[in-house]
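Retro notes (design track)

What went well: tokenization of the new backbones is finally stable.
What didn't: we kept losing track of which sequence belonged to which structure.
Fix going forward: every design gets posted as structure first, then sequence, in one message. First example under the new rule, 315 residues:
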């Protein structure tokens, strides 16, 4: 392990690059437990994200006396990109993401000196929430509770008819050999005009949103332009898997799903529908919040933390 301060987060975080079974290097970070730690939080970020985006959320976790472990998902952040063009977010299957998470937990989290004495919690955003559901289905008996914020259960594609057409076009593009090509509208340079449009989908908070642009300006290698047809096709396959009848029944630990009432990135109504029949799922919608609740204005962000604190306090 390389013992260095995590430059944008502080608190003495340690960086470690883990090499997965297929040779992909994953960047991880940890703030190990101490005698006061109430539990260990394993955080999984969303699509095109990187750990530095959580410069406010991570310290909030640490201030609550939780140890913290996090990673950049393969293909984004400072983990290995899967294509020569670093701007392309690509994968052939979402199976690798849950496998990476399992290896990270097995090799790093469970090596924490107190991992056997205090509970382990999964906390995740968007695509990270999707990955967590895949992990919890496939690898049971390690995590005590999970919190998924605005989970990627279905893309918000603008209605059933438009969605069906777009899904057909994505599958057709794969058959034509375009798996590694940018999908429609995904080739996005880190420009001010693109950033201002993107913000309207993610958060009402101008100040918190501006932090991301400053981070990318100082560390441009963190940036990912958008998804390939291959990534989108793999995501659709994985979404179908999660929505298979009986799939979520295999997840028996308590799960808190916090949904954003004004989400235009993922479909909140679909999440409500598939989670409502699960007795171990607590589903909360924060009315008015956009997709990235963790960096929303205080009105919505405070609601998120009240739900998280209450959920983790109940044994």
């Amino acid at each position: 392990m390389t013992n260095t301060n995590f430059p944008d987060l502080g608190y003495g975080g340690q960086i470690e690059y883990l090499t997965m079974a297929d040779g992909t290097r994953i960047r991880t970070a940890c703030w190990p437990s101490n005698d006061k730690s109430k539990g260990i939080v394993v955080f999984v970020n969303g699509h095109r994200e990187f750990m530095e985006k959580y410069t406010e959320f991570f310290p909030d976790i640490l201030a609550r006396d939780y140890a913290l472990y996090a990673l950049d998902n393969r293909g984004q952040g400072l983990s290995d990109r899967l294509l020569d063009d670093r701007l392309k977010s690509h994968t052939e299957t979402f199976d690798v993401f849950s496998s990476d998470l399992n290896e990270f937990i097995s090799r790093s989290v469970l090596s924490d000196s107190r991992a056997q004495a205090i509970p382990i919690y999964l906390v995740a955003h968007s695509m990270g929430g999707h990955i967590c559901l895949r992990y919890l289905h496939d690898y049971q008996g390690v995590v005590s509770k999970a919190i998924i914020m605005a989970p990627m259960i279905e893309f918000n594609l603008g209605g059933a008819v438009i969605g069906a057409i777009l899904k057909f076009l994505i599958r057709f593009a794969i058959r034509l050999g375009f798996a590694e090509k940018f999908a429609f509208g995904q080739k996005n340079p880190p420009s001010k005009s693109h950033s201002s449009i993107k913000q309207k989908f993610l958060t009402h908070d101008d100040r918190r949103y501006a932090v991301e642009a400053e981070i990318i300006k100082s560390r441009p290698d963190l940036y990912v332009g958008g998804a390939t047809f291959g990534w989108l096709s793999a995501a659709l396959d994985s979404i179908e898997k999660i929505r298979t009848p009986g799939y979520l029944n295999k997840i028996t630990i308590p799960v808190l799903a916090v949904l954003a009432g004004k989400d235009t990135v993922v479909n909140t109504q679909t999440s409500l529908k598939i989670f409502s029949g699960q007795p171990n799922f607590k589903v909360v919608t924060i009315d008015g919040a956009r997709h990235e609740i963790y960096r929303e204005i205080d009105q919505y962000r405070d609601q998120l933390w009240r739900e998280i604190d209450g959920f983790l306090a109940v044994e």
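Added context from the reviewer: The beta strands are 14-19, 25-31, 39-44, 66-71, 88-89, 120-125, 145-149, 226-227, 255-260, 281-286.
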